[in-house]
Amino acid sequence: MCLAVPVRVERLLDNEMAVVEMDGLRKEISLALVDGVREGDYVILHVGYALTRLDPEEAERTLALFAELANRLDDLGEVRP
Amino acid sequence: MKGPWEDLEGRIMVAVHLERGYVADVTVASTRRPELCRALEGMPVKAVPSMVALLFHVCSAAQECAARIACEQIAGLPPTAGEQSRRQIRVVLETVREHAWAVCIEWPRRLGMAPEVEAFAGIRSALRAIDEGLPDWPDKPMEEGTLRALAQAIDRALALEGRVWEGPGALHSWVTAGICPAAHFLQKVRDEDLAEFGRCSLRPVPDMIAWDLDGALAADVDHRFVSRPEWEGDACETGPLVRMSGHPLVAELWQRYGNGLLTRLAARLVELVGLPPRLGQLLDGLSGNDGVLGIGGNGVGLGQVEAARGRLAHRVKVEGDRVSRYQILAPTEWNFHPRGPLWRGLVGRPAGNADILRRQVGFLAVALDPCVAFTVQVT
């Protein structure tokens, strides 16, 4: 992903795979490139691979920032997704 | 996953239209949103660079570097030489990572092969070791061996075994040996006679056109320029092919095959292999900051950086201490312009089988390396 939006690891699967959740949507991703990911952690994704693990606090801060930026776009009159 | 954040990031959609066995037209559409950086407007200018670093993942070092250069023009306070070099080194490390991602993960996926996850992880770990030494550098020299470890990890990923691609013959031998996915990809290009696939005439984004670029961005009230940039009425291209066009192997391939698929892929490989020595020069203080440029004045700053995929520009305008306007012009917008390399390189070609063509157009799009997902449709 071009933008660094954290996604939450909902469930660990076999073979270094996991199910992530973002905005109510779920997807299977690979954890082959990051160590020590646990359920509830947040990761940054890039085309199906988790590349960076974030602790929940750091992730919440980043998600709040994205939400704030989306609101700013509203205020500026830009169409948000 | 198709959700709000993916919508925010956008994607590229390539549609190839056939008529009577030829490519009649190519539509390159983008749902990317270059105006998203307007969200930075109203923020204190000093908060912008770290904010930018948090927002982007794929090219965060280059984005942060361009933002810092732009914002520094406002205060007129240039960074120290050491800080400039550190930024440049981080951008080069990121370029290695992005090229390594392409050759280890993306290229094999395109071929239906298993990605070389371990090879990529080895390169990433070597990059991390250098990055971790940067805060104390140059006071504390980089540990001996860190750079060598990176060169070795790249050598292993490409199964080079110390080979140097001196010319097309040496490249051909490496391709024929075909031990790694990158060599397989070039084998495919050779076997399917695709060396010239996508060949066209296209000018590069002119070198550091700072004041002209500043003027074009200043006049871009409807985001048209940052969405579909042109120079003097022409679509242009930027990235490894342009940067490596003077390399002897790339120049020779260009002479034979133009800017077709083989030359494009070889340019990325040549750049990847050449980056550890480039890092060595930067770490030894033997190379200047020739990949970055900033200009500014009267509350406006422009920063340009050669990112992994090509020229990246940030422009900031300030009122008081707050951002009143923020613009980003990214390389993907140059390289996936509706009249850019895909349109120019494909229209008028004999089409053959639609499924095969769709796969081959996918190869070309991967060689052009957008920073977001893309789809190809042939109708």
From TrEMBL, chain A:
<dbReference type="GO" id="GO:0051604">
    <property type="term" value="P:protein maturation"/>
</dbReference>
<dbReference type="GO" id="GO:0005506">
    <property type="term" value="F:iron ion binding"/>
</dbReference>
<dbReference type="Pfam" id="PF01455">
    <property type="entry name" value="HupF_HypC"/>
</dbReference>
<dbReference type="InterPro" id="IPR001109">
    <property type="entry name" value="Hydrogenase_HupF/HypC"/>
</dbReference>
<comment type="similarity">
    <text>Belongs to the HupF/HypC family.</text>
</comment>
<protein>
    <submittedName>
        <fullName>HypC/HybG/HupF family hydrogenase formation chaperone</fullName>
    </submittedName>
</protein>
<dbReference type="InterPro" id="IPR019812">
    <property type="entry name" value="Hydgase_assmbl_chp_CS"/>
</dbReference>
<dbReference type="GO" id="GO:1902670">
    <property type="term" value="F:carbon dioxide binding"/>
</dbReference>
Automatic annotation (TrEMBL), chain B:
<protein>
    <submittedName>
        <fullName>Nickel-dependent hydrogenase large subunit</fullName>
    </submittedName>
</protein>
